[in-house]
Structure prediction request, 387 residues.
Amino acid sequence: MTVFERYLTLWISLCIMVGILLGKFFPGIAEAINSWAITVDGVALVSLPIAICLFLMIYPIMVKIDFNQVLMSGKSFRPVALTLLINWAIKPFTMYAIATFFLGNIFLNYIGEDATDLIKLPIGAALTVGDAYGAGKVVMIDGMAMLEVPLWRSYLAGCVLLGIAPCTAMVLIWGNLSRGNDSHTLVMVAINSVVMTLLFGVLGGFLLGVGRLPVPWEALLLSVAVYVISPLLCGYFSRQWIVKKKGESWFHLKFLRFLQPVSIFALLMTLVLLFALKGAAIVENSLTILWISVPLIVQTFLVFGIGYGLSKLFRLSYEDAAPTSLIGASNHFEVAIATAAMLYGLSSGAALATVVGVLIEVPLMLLLVRFCLRTKNWFAEDIKSSL
Prediction:
């Protein structure tokens, strides 16, 4: 981990502060960002500045994946099966339950029972002003039809999107720092990236629907295509081409080292843009970050605890248990941010919730890495991960 990566939380905090100040004192920036977008039927669907930044964040993650590792994953069936169970059968549903409990009950009076958020209308929906849609109602704002939904449900949507997006980036660092099985981590990054193309839209649509939030299926599927499938395919084919032309050594020592700062810079620029859109609202209600952070923190510790406990129960080696638990605890916030922005808008509460996920993830994961290292002796060293 480089010095820059080690203090990533500091850089994230600084960029968030810059974004908030820009949004507060230069409100025209938000309008400019929203105007640079691809529209369908008058609805802003893809923000070009955000889309470019997000692609630059996600592509370096995908190009690292060696899919030959996936073919050998059968040798480690138990850790792979447990990781998939945690990421796709447990984590999405605990996130929904925890976020609903805190945002829709414990913190509802602080957020405001009558507080609302304005989000995009679903693409192609034949709705007119006054129509009800889920928990929302169609309203006209500055000549544009928007969907007015309870604010806490908008935050819930962002939490749900984080819960259905398992980490495929920083987890490579967390696994390495915990002295885990790097091969297992790489395999799960590849498998989760593939599974995400199949289940992200399905689980997202289901849980958002249960939460009485709009489920714009066209935009949801387009989001998967743009922010998951597209960089995955670009990463796969560009990796094959570069390795063929330059060799494995040049790819790892030159190309990936070049991409790493590009990915982090794109992340930081995305945060500046996103918080510029929410700057005024955050200054007026700074406790918003706290209300959103609590369920995300509880979810992180709970899912990690489930993973660590099941790893011990299933007699995994520490080298497999650590990355298995850390993968479940962390989120693919790049895809979550992109999807929230596409589905509900850059200035939505859902987009803000996904960005809060970025803010808290680094310190939480570093804490869990330290916990793993201190409890390494809980696992019998003579148990091999290949069993």
About this structure: Confidence is low (pLDDT under 50) at residues 382-387.
